[in-house]
Each structure stands twice: as C-alpha cells, then as structure tokens.
Design brief:
Oligomer: heterodimer
CATH superfamily of the largest domain in chain A: FAD/NAD(P)-binding domain
Largest sheet of chain B: 3 strands, antiparallel
Largest sheet of chain A: 5 strands, parallel
Number of strands of chain B: 7
Distance between the termini of chain B: 56 Å
Mean pLDDT of chain A: 95
Shape of chain B: globular
Low-confidence stretches of chain B: 586-593
Strand order of the largest sheet of chain B: 2-1-3
Mean pLDDT of chain B: 92
Number of strands of chain A: 25
Shape of chain A: globular
Structural class of chain A: alpha/beta
Helix content of chain B: 55-70%
Number of domains of chain A: 3
Number of helices of chain B: 26
Distance between the termini of chain A: 44 Å
Amino acid sequence: MKHTVIIGNGIAGTTAARWLRKLSTQKITIISSETDHFFSRTALMYIYMGHMRFEDTKPYEDWFWTKNRIDLVKDHVNDIDYRNKSLGLASGSEIKYDNLILALGSKSNMFGWPGQNLDGVGGLYNFQDLENMEKHSPGLQRAVICGGGLIGIEMAEMFHSRNIPVTMLVRESSYWNNVLPPEESQMVSDHIRKNHIDLRLSLNLGEIKGDGTGKAKSIIVKETGEEISCGYVGLTAGVSPNVGWLKESGLEIERGIMVDEHLATNMPDVYAIGDCAQLRQPKPGRRNIEAVWYTGRMMGETVAYNITGKTVDYDPGIWFNSAKFIDIEYQVYGDMPAQHDESTESLFWKHSDNEKSVRINYEKSTGTVKGFNLFGIRYRHEVCEKWIKDKTHIEDVIQNLGMANFDPEFYKQYEGDVVNLYNQKSGKNLTLKKKRGLRNVLSFLGA
Amino acid sequence: MKFIQNIGLGLFIISLLTFVGMLGVGHQKLSVDHIPGNEYHKTAITTAAQEAGILDTEMSNVGFVSNFKQVLKTAQNEQEKLSEAGLPDDVDEWNFKIGNWKMDEYASSAVKASAGGPVQDNPWLFFFLTFGLAIIGGLLFIIPKFFETPGIKNNGIYHDSLTRGIKVNLRSGLLIFTIIAVIIYGFVREGNLFWPLVTIAIGLAITYFVFFREGSKDNNPQRSASPINTGWLGIIAGFILIGFYILLYWKPEYINNWVTMVNPLSNSLNGGEASRWFLYGMMYTIIMLVMGIRMLAKYQHNKYQRVRTYSVMFFQTSFAFLIPQILAKFNMPAPDLKNMWPLDYSFFFDYRLDELASNGTLGIFMLVWGIVLFSIGVPVFVFFFGKRWYCSWVCGCGGLAETMGDPFRQLSDKSMRAWKYERYIIHGVMVAAVIMTIGVLYTYFTGSYSILGFNTASLKSWYGFFIGAGFAGIVGTGFYPLMGNRVWCRFGCPLAGYLGLIQRFRSKFRITTNGGQCISCGNCSTYCEMGIDVRSYAQKGQDIVRSSCVGCGVCAAVCPRGVLRLENGPNTDSSRTAELRTIHISEGEIKIL
C-alpha cells in the first residue's frame, strides 16, 4: 500500500488528506507539531475574543480521523531524506513515504528590528502565537501593532474586544492602500478610528525596547523617534513561506518551494501546497505565492488528484477573497487593483453611512466587467464569477445586479442606486431588472 | 455605561432574592371557612383538622402544607372506611370518597384561603419588588447596548461563567440524574409503574441504537462541550429554572405568595383571581419582552433578526397572553390561538372539546381553526417558508428560546452523537403524541378507557407529566444554561418534528452557501441553537436542507465572510446539496461530479 505523508495539518494539508481518502485507499499520515488536530487558523481571533473555544474551531470531530483512516502524528520534522524517502522527526523516530506533501504554511515576517525577540512580542499566525497573546493580556495597559493588513486589524480587534487600548503603526498612508483603492481604504481607516483604535499612518517601527528583564516595554517610532510604552508588540507585517529549514536540502526554493502546474517540486514524489508553495508559472494576473485560505484548499484538492494518478493543472479560477474589518465585511471577486490602469473604468458607489460600498471595474473600450469590491454588502460568488468569466458587459451586469445580492432578507438593497450612478455617469437610462432572490440566480447559473 | 449596567445587575439580583425569599413570608391560619370540598369532604377534613389541632393556629407555609396534607390523608382514610360501611343514599362513591387527584387541589385552595401576611396585604409592593425591579434592572443592563457600535459582539461569551458551559461528562450526568429523578417522581405521583418503565425501556433502546447500531460509542463528542468545569453560574441558573418549574408544575401549594402577588393584575385583566398559570403566562411574557429588547439591541444592524424578534414579542403578548385574558373576561373559551396540536397536546382532551362544543359558533370556530392550523396551515406555510414561519417567528416556546435563551445558544451540542439522539427522540415523542391523542379521542367517542389492553387515561396522564411538564419544562427550559436554548425544540417538540419532516422533504426553504467563501471558522456551527454543524455544509459549498433548522438566521448573521443566506427558492436543485461539491477544479478535466 502506498503511503502519502503530509507535513502540516492546516487547510492545505488537511484538504489534501481528505481528497486522497476520497480518491484512494492508500495510507495517509499527517504530521504537525502545532496542534493534535486540524483547526481553522482564521478563527484564532475568535478564541481570544471569547466567541468560540478552541474546540469550536476544529472543523471535524476528533473521531473523524480514525474513521477516515488518516493517521495523525504530533511531532516535528527535522530533516527530509529525499533519496531514501524518509523523514527524521524530533522525537527521534523515522517515517517512510512514497509521496510527500509539504504544507508548511507561513511564518510572520520579522525584519530584523532590534528587540524583536523580546518576551511580549509576537505575530498572529499559529496557535502558539495565540497562547503568547493570551499570556500577556492580563493587566495589559496597551498593545502596539506594527503593520496594517488583514492580520494587523484582526489583532487590533482582538485587543479591542477586551478593552485593551491599541495603537496601530501602519507603513502606508491609509489602511491597506496597497491593496484597497483609496476610497475603500479611507472608509476602513475611518472605521478603525471610530472603534477608538489609535491608527498612526505612514509610520514604521524603529526598535522595541526591553525593560531589562527580557520583556518588551515600549517601541520607538522610526520616523519620529516617539516612544510608545506598551506591554505587547504585535508584528503583523505580512507572512512569508515557512521554508527556512529546508533551504540547504536540495529542494528548489526561492521565496517559497518552487512547484510546477501539478504542484510537484524538483524532488521526485515531493509536492508543495498552500502558503509555502511558489508557482513557477502562475496563471495570468495571479501572484506566484498566494497565502490565503482558499488557494490552500484548492491546492490540497489538486495535489490529491495528481498523486492518485489523475493529472490536473492547478487552476484557482477567478480570484476571490474576503475579510472582515471589525464590523465591515469585505468581499472581492475578480481583479481589483488598488490603482486601476487607464484602460479600466471604475464604478464606485458608497452609502452615506460610510460603511457600505460597491465598486465594479470594467474595461473602458469593450465594457467587459472585470471585478467587484464589496464593503458591508454581500454578493454571490457564483454569480459574480460567471459574469466575469463570461466577459459580461457592464450594462448587462448592473441591470441584473440584484441577482448578485446575498444580504439577509429584509435588508435594504442598493443596486438601484448603483444603476442610477451608472446612468448619471453615462447619460443612459437603464433600470434594475432583477431583484434579490434565488429563482433568478438558479436559472442564470443553470443557463 | 458599565456603571449603569452594574446597577441593573444589582437590581435584578435583589428582585431574584426577593422573589425566592417572599415564599417564606407570612403565615397560614386555617379556619373552618377555609376548608375546601363538598359537604362530605369538608366535614371529613374539618374533623381531621380539629383532631390534628391545626385550626386557628398560625403556621409557616411549609409547616402548614405538611400538616394539612397529613390531615387530608386522615380524612381520605376516614371516608374510605366509612364508604366500606355503606354510602349515604344521596351521594355517589367519588363525591363521598376523596380521590387522590383532589388532594393537591384541596391543599392549594386551603393554602390560598388561609394565607395572611405582607404579601396578602401589599401585593403591588411585592409585585414591584420582584417583577418591577427585575424589569428596571434588566432594562438598565440592556439599554446601554443600544449605544455600542452595531455589529456582531459575542465578545467574552466563553469567558463568562454563566454562558461558557460545562464538560460533557458532567453535563450528561446532570441530565441523566434529572431524567431519572423526574421518572421516579412520576411513578410516585401517578402511582403507575407501567409507563415509567416503558419510558425507561425506550430511553435504553434509543441509547443502544445510537451507541451500537449507529456506532457512536467511540465517537466521543469532546468538541461539543466545554473542556473545563468553570461554568458554575450556568449550573446555578439551571438549578434556579429547574426549581421554578418543579414548584410551578408539581408543588403549587408552596408558591401561593407568588400567585397572590399577581392577583390585582389578574383581576384587572380578566376579572378573576390569579392562578399559577396566570402567573406563569405573565412572567413568560415579561421575560420575552425584556429579553426581546436585548435581542433588538444586539442585532440593531440586522433587520431580519429585528423583524423576527418583534414577531415573537407580538405573538406572545397578544395571542398567548392578552387575548386569552380578554376571552376569559367574557366567559369564553380562552385558548392560545397560535398554539397548535401536537405541541398543544391537550387540544383534543375531553374537557377542552366539551368546552368548545358548548360555546356555540365561537367554540366551533376555535375547534376548526385549531384543526386547520396543523392540518393545512403547517404544510402550506412550511412549503413556502420552511418551519421558521412557526418556530422562530410565532411559537411561544421558540420565542422564549430566541429571547431569554439567546445568551445560551452556543451551548447546543454539535456532535454527530447528539444529532443521532435527536432524530430518535424527537420522532419518538411525535409518535407518542399521536398515539396518546388517538387514545384520548377513542375514549371521547366510545367511552371506553381501554384500547388494545392499554389504559388511555394513564397514557394521557403520563404524557402530560413526562413530556408536557418534565421534558418541555424541567429539561427543556431548565437546561438552557447547560445544553443551549432549544433543548425542547430540538429533541422533544412533536410539532417541530412534524414541521421538520415537511421542511426536509417538501419545502422551498434552505440555507444557501456562497460559493467558495467559507473559511471554516465555525461561528455558524457554534451559534446554531439547533446544534446543526452548519460549517460542515458551508465549507463544502453545499446548500443546507435540515429538518431541525428553525431558520433563526443567526448563522448568517455571525458569519464573518457573508457565506450563508436563508432563502425560499424554487424546489431544491439536488446538485446543490450534493456531498461532493467542488467549485474550482475545472470540470473539463475532472469528471467525478
């Protein structure tokens, strides 16, 4: 019986194991030193905030693994012998594999700041990071978070939920404006401030000062030299592939582990998926490393097919992502750059409450719709994706825009306002033809 | 803000202490006029009371109840003896002998008649000190929430001893203990061993099926309960609720002061003296209104939740409480017109049918309304809207769960094992309700109490005791702080079982998932009060069609990524509920779907 070993029990590794089990009868082992069982990393914040317990973040009950004959090993892999296909574990034991899947995830970026290894300094990526935050929280007077982005705001929300004052140092001139267009970025910045989080823009971390006992006591802002005293320093300046320990092993690594379109590495029968994988040839418009939940899941599925002998290219389809900025939900479908180029036209509608917006980008010349940015309003993934895939004309899209609305019943719909905005801009006289509802959607998707 | 909330909490605790403490206030002083019963009974009880020396003596409520029960027992034995010697000419056996079923009624009525003290002198004062302070305290605690930034704020729920739950083993232990205690008490009270034994046998059979036939023995549901036992406030809250229900259902002679306190209110509403059911109905309505306001504050950003909360508040206040009061004032039958069989299990009981039959057009209308509601209303409405139209918009039990129970919704057990128990138990109760009702109707129309060798009266009585009071009240509500707010709706309610079957097989209602957006965080499953593992569907992109879903919409509300939506659509396209629903492996390359 073939034996596939997966290093890492995150979403990528777990999805790979589940699909291997669906597609084959081979022996499957998952090795992780983080936790005994797979949990949802994206839900770490909710444990801290008291919304959920760790148990609730586990998508499968503990008996699931035995029932599906997926062996779980809690151990740390120290070295990989590609020639003999064997793994050396921290416990001293050895595991042989026929196929190896590396799903190693990321680690928080540290840019060599003085004091970055002090006690009371940490990122937010794995379970141990959460424990570290928890340990330093009792009696905490202030936390400083260095770095905007999605993890930075999550960490800010976490401390905020326990009424711990938070200062956020953000390199950009407006929150996450390297990803979000200026209007949306401004809206989120306003929302952060509305929640009494001390958002400081265009500033960087200079150094972290210790109190002499090895514990962080303050930070120095690089640009101004200002000292902000704090009991915890969150480092959330992004993540990078967790591959440092493999650099000399013969595995081809740039920033991440280099993989082809079948997610195979340069070593025989070794694959890499999820945050740690770097695609040699990403699909047009896509980055070579995409450290998001969804791509990890798709890669896990793809690698399972390839290992079980059905050769499939990794095809993540049309880009989508989502997040929540404190109380504002965010969804994106398609290509929505922070700064769109000349050939693109952008239709942007914002609600007067400064917490809801819709942006639709389309090509100026052909009217082809390219993507959607939604804040505080939910749109249907399948509908938006189909519009983009079918290169639908913007006027078709906005006249049927109600169909995309996924907000709960009784919520006010703003698609009419978007149509009016388009009419103002273009001098046309379009009307909204379809409202929210499943009937239209199913016939549209079925067609 | 915090300061105001703490004052509110303080007032609430004072009201709760007063509520409990007032039961010990005042005295009982029995005089001959207070003794209940027809002339034979009255004479017998008076004689016994004289012999016992309790007449015109001041006693505490508890002391009096035990003495008076002794007196009743003596009188009962005496009548029994006399009747053996021969009944007087003008009376039948049961007007002469004192039947067991009369004992509680006589005790309550003697307690009521002979009570005196501060509560009797100042009912409004005590009403203010209990209900008044509780309402003021509750509102002071709740209203500041309207000024928080709108959005899902479940912060600290699992840090709070009241709402964090307890370990699965302790929880199961408490549950089993409670069920066994109720069954034993039922045996003592009903004097019948047959149905308690049947109940235990069914319970063991279900456990056997769940553990061995369906293989849940080794599927330890760790994930479904707290890893530590620090939810002691939850345990206390559970015991308070259980204690309340025991007194209300089975020991009303000890809660006379509570009933007395609401007498003036009852008088002004329906022109009559308060009963314990008036007290309960009023309390239920007040709790739902105050905690409904809490829901409105918590979900100020969510219109679906707000509309739904207004709906349950409205139906409780009008249909369940005020309309019956008004009907009673005009001496008309006063049912809760939104309640229906088989949840309203006494709908076809003889006394209710007789009452409706003797009230002309109105009575006939009420009878037809009740039958049409469950026979036509349910299938039609569930077809279009799912069972939510009833369970989370109209129903009183559901309304209480959605208001008072909301802080506990996360404690529902999401394990596969619990789901297996649920399916056996809820459908078992449904079958029991149907059998019991057939028996009752058979007796009503034929006059015979025996059907296939079973006694219809004892089954009816056991159903009322064990399901109606024990399951729906003691366990169903008492376990809110331990097993979540829908224990009854999920495991017990026969109407929910019936609505659920239609929802599962013939309804336009389902929860749709938004493509691939799920991040498996688990908020939806955690906050599902029915214990549905919503995430297990959402992460596969599968639409959710489950018989138990009451459509409260909280999964969609707590989802941080906008993945879930309650919809009434065209009949379910089965591919959308398929097990393997991949979204991003191009179909041209892989054909497994």
